[in-house]
């Protein structure tokens, strides 16, 4: 399963986790391209993550209380 929006990594302290931006999050913030092969075959939970990015121009990460605006140069191809 693709991990597009975020990555949670173990920290140096046992039992503590740190947020690390994933591929999609970095592309949205930095204005780079994302190319998704076989976009018609991706699971609905991934589609539900992509729709607000396309429709509202933002990525919401509720578990982190974050909303990341889409950079004007970001492009999504599928």
Task: Please explain how this structure is put together.
- There is one protein chain.
- The protein starts with 5 loop residues before the first strand and ends with a strand.
- Strands 1-2 form a two-stranded antiparallel sheet. A two-stranded parallel sheet has the order 3-6. The protein has a two-stranded antiparallel sheet with strand order 4-5.
- 27% of the residues lie in helices and 31% in strands.
- The longest helix is centred in the middle third of the chain and has 13 residues, at 44-56.
- The chain has 78 residues and is of the alpha+beta class.
Features:
78 residues; alpha+beta; two-stranded antiparallel ribbon; 6 strands; disordered N terminus
Strand-helix topology:
Layout (H helix, E strand, L loop, with lengths): L5 E5 L6 E5 L1 H8 L2 E3 L8 H13 L1 E4 L4 E4 L5 E3 L1
Parallel strand pairs: 3-6
Antiparallel strand pairs: 1-2, 4-5
